[in-house]
């Protein structure tokens, strides 16, 4: 499962029609299986409390409508989105839509009875009104909304800030939804590790963000604030939950890898990409433009703004040499992730020796293997080329022998196959 999150208003022309056969073919060729169309549901704009000059896609005014500015013909906007769903399916990919279950816009209104709210907001989300879950009408309203979009062909939902919503709501809603629409995927935005098992097992989510685990770990390793051995520690801490984590290096809340506030270039993020997408058989997500080294230099501290107009991203067509190189590396990694789906993994770091050139603070190595393919991946999280002798223990696959010498460029990784 490879998810492509895209802020629809900034992709190409910024319309549903921008996702034509050419752009969808590009994404399919990249290895994408699911497209998360962000910012589709109609959100608040033109109000005093609206953030930025566009408004937040997480301040929903009508769950049964889509944003008019995304359509070529505003009156035909729902039909245009339905055609986009059909085009996505025809291209061999599935559609994920936002579900924001904690809050709506203060001026929320729909033709189905609305949603009970508390008249207050969480944190600094002054453009929202918190949903009242003490009123069972809100449970029914959200469940009906999910069914409505499923009936139009939506295949899954990325659920916003699930820890602010009773887990029992998700348990009931997801269970009932799957009776009518089997296979619907639910991804939860969850930050506290202590809540992971609860929202997976009781809430029945398929996957959760691993922001506080893999993302924070890899970011710290790239920044030089954490040792590469923390990757192993995070994996061991997650245990059987690892396969249900959605790994990522970018999304609409986080800074771009290539921005000066993160790695400074896409190339310096190659090692993190290899680990995030390949270390364990778990789904991976990338944010539109990540695959060509988008740096969001016109955004706030390296973030592509979801509130304001910004440079439109066209990840296909005329690209520079640097963009082509980044794109090729991403394509190789994502294709390999698809090829290795469901295969076993083996962390090699515990048996490596510093005297053989392996630095546990800067280097990371692992195996992925199944009946037909064996892959060894070694990463160098440092600014110097690394030469090391890797030891392969007897309990791992022996197709690479007991040991081998490898050279890894700075801030890069190598893939050896058998």
Number of strands: 18
Which outline best applies?
Answer: globular
CATH class of the largest domain: Alpha Beta
- The value of Rg in angstroms is 22 Å
- Element-by-element helix/strand order: EHEEEHEEEHEHEHEHHEHEHEEEEEE
Label the structural class. alpha/beta
The amount of beta strand, in percent, is 15-25%
Helix content: 25-40%
What is the spatial order of strands in the main beta sheet? Answer: 1-2-5-8-9-10-11-12
Oligomer: single chain
| Mean model confidence by pLDDT | 95
CATH topology of the largest domain: TIM Barrel
CATH superfamily of the largest domain: Glycosidases
**End-to-end separation:** 24 Å
Q: Helical region count?
A: 9
CATH architecture verdict of the largest domain: Alpha-Beta Barrel
Poorly predicted tracts of residues: none
Number of domains: 2
The description of the largest β-sheet is: 8 strands, parallel, barrel
Question: Your description of this structure?
Answer:
By secondary structure, the chain is an alpha/beta fold. The protein has two domains: 2-343, TIM Barrel, CATH 3.20.20; 345-417, Sandwich (Immunoglobulin-like), CATH 2.60.40. It has nine helices and 18 strands. It has helices at 21-30, 77-90, 136-151, 167-180, 196-202, 211-223, 229-238, 270-278, 321-339; strands at residues 2-7, 34-38, 41-43, 60-66, 94-99, 103-104, 129-130, 156-159, 185-188, 207-209, 245-248, 284-287, 344-347, 363-369, 374-380, 386-391, 403-408, 412-417. The strands form five sheets. An eight-stranded parallel β-barrel has the order 1-2-5-8-9-10-11-12, surrounded by six helices. Strands 13-14-15-18 form a four-stranded antiparallel sheet. Helix 6 packs antiparallel against helix 7. The radius of gyration is 22 Å and the shape is globular. The two termini are 24 Å apart. The model has no long low-confidence stretch (mean pLDDT 95).
């Amino acid at each position: 499962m490879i998810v492509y999150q895209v802020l629809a208003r900034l992709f190409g022309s910024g319309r549903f029609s921008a996702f034509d056969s050419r752009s969808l073919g590009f994404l399919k060729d990249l290895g994408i299986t699911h497209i998360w169309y962000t910012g589709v549901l109609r959100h608040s704009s033109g109000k005093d409390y609206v953030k930025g000059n566009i408004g937040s896609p997480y301040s929903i005014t009508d769950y049964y409508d889509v944003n008019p500015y995304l359509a070529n013909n505003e009156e035909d906007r729902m039909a245009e989105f339905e055609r986009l769903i059909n085009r996505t399916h025809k291209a061999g990919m599935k559609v994920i839509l936002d579900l924001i279950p904690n809050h709506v816009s203060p001026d929320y209104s729909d033709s189905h009875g609305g949603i009970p709210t508390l008249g207050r907001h969480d944190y600094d989300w002054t453009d929202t009104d918190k949903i009242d879950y003490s009123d069972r009408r809100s449970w029914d309203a959200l469940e009906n909304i999910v069914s409505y979009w499923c009936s139009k062909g939506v295949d899954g939902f990325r659920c916003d800030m699930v820890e602010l919503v009773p887990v029992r709501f998700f348990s009931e809603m997801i269970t009932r939804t799957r009776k009518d629409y089997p296979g619907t995927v639910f991804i939860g935005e969850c930050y506290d590790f202590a809540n992971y098992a609860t929202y997976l097992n009781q809430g029945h989510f398929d996957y959760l963000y691993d922001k506080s685990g893999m993302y924070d770990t890899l970011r710290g390793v790239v920044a030089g604030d954490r040792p590469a051995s923390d990757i192993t520690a995070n994996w061991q801490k997650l245990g059987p939950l690892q396969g249900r984590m959605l790994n990522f290096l970018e999304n609409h809340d986080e800074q771009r890898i290539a921005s000066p506030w993160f790695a400074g270039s896409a190339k310096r993020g190659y090692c993190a990409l290899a680990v995030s997408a390949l270390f364990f058989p778990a789904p991976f997500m990338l944010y539109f433009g990540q695959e060509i080294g988008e740096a969001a230099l016109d955004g706030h501290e390296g973030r592509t703004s979801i509130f304001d107009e910004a440079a439109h991203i066209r990840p296909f067509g005329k690209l520079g040499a640097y963009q082509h190189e980044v794109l090729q590396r991403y394509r190789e990694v994502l294709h390999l992730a698809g090829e290795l789906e469901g295969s076993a993994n083996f962390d090699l770091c515990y048996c490596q020796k510093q005297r053989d050139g392996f630095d546990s603070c800067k280097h990371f190595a692992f195996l992925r293997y199944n009946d037909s393919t064996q892959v060894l991946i070694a990463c160098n999280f440092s600014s110097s080329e690394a030469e090391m002798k890797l030891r392969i223990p007897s309990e791992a696959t022996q197709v690479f022998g007991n040991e081998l010498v490898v050279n890894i460029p700075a801030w890069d990784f190598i893939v050896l196959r058998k």
